[in-house]
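Molecular record:
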Amino acid sequence: MTLLNLIPLRAHERPEPASADDRSILLMVALLLGLVFVPIIGLHIAAVAFDSESAASPPDNLAHHVTLPAKPTRG
């Protein structure tokens, strides 16, 4: 049984209704995906919400913000 067997492509494609085992497998897959992705999304939201002053000002130590020293002139 695969995930494609659980979700019909059209409204009346399946001749038999989904069994309780099929629904419990789909519920477990959704629960495990939620356990993986919900903390990641929550940490990103918390980092943006509580670290607003460093997100507003760019860091000064990036290479493209560094000004090169002036070359000495000859003569």
The chain has a mean pLDDT of 75. The chain is about 55% helix and 0% strand. The two ends are 83 Å apart (CA to CA).
